[in-house]
Amino acid sequence: MPDFMILIRENETEQQRMAPSETKALVERHAAYVQRLNAAGAYRDSERLRPSAEGKRVHASKVEAGPFGDEHAIAGYYLVKADNLDAAVALAEPCPMAPGDTLDVRPLMGGDVRANKTSRQGKTFAFAVLGNASSEEAWEEVMDRIEADTSDLSRDERFLGGVRLEPPRRGLQIVSRGHKRTVMDGPFLESKEVIGGLFFMRMADLDEAVRWARGTKFLKHGELEIRELWRS
Q: What is the value of pTM for the model shown?
């Protein structure tokens, strides 16, 4: 059965306007959603990223401190298994969303899925692989080059798994407008940097993660956004 990522893109400005009681209720709804996915036999993994203001985006020539000016920051994800894209969207539609959030539902091209990444001592960082191109075909070529140049990543003892996503045109987007949700077709290349995958590393701190990223071949063709995972 194919795997799909439900990528949560958060409007952080709207999130900051939420009352503490609303935030608590949202967290509780996410916990109930995990139970729902487990009951359906669809759940594989999920994580939540710390706010973008605490992250870094590493380019070939500079390191950019968050927030990054994106209207919708990567906030977290669910990995689910489903028969097809329509079935994955049906699983995604009940996913809790705060005002202004969107969900990207993307098939996985491949990867190494490992659960419980934050269960051990130390900090775990998510590295979002970002690419910028004038067309989706050109963006795919960028992602192919990145994958070829970094195929030895799994040999690093700090590596905790990761996935590559199919191109945006092979997915769907769920947009929240008030109490109504709308499913929209791709592609979604209107943003400057499009995510092609996520991988996870155990590092001492953000500074170590940035130093490591600056020495990798990811930056030959794209960028890395580094965000610590919330501990469960």
A: 0.93
